[in-house]
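Researcher: Please translate sequence to structure tokens.
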Amino acid sequence: MSNDKVTPVENRYVRHLVIIFSTGLYSGYCPVAPGTAGTIVAVLLYLALSRLTALSYGITLVAFLFMSCWFSGAAEAIFSGRDSGRIVIDEISGFLVTMAFLSPESLYVLSGFFLFRFFDIVKPFPIRRLETLKGGYGIVADDVMAGIYSNLVLRIFSLLVEGKAPMSW
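Model: Translation complete:
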């Protein structure tokens, strides 16, 4: 047996896990709007995670962001292309940032969904520039920034319309 280091893409089990996670449980294979399909998966994940305490959600989110970068970079090698449309774990990460520390009320979730998709598609400054980062970080960073923009808009909306901070914890 060789002592050569096996990259995650060469190990068939790890390769399969990379495909499952990077494609958002295969939602990235949706023939129409795979990013939107991945965001729908993100909504379901967020609703499950919204039951956590703020500290637990924050820790889980940071861990998920780093994991997303790794999976995205590995998936890039599998799909042989820069930021393949099949890779949607970045949309999942971005939506989790969108909803970070917000109430899981349907108004926020629905608004967050549409705001995130808007910022992810339009990519206002500096979102598009973040795509130039190398590897998985470039795949995920622009979606995280779109999530930050969306989160801020939701907070401003909540303060202006409801006169309160939209915290859930």
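Researcher: Any highlights?
Model: Confidence is low (pLDDT under 50) at residues 1-6.
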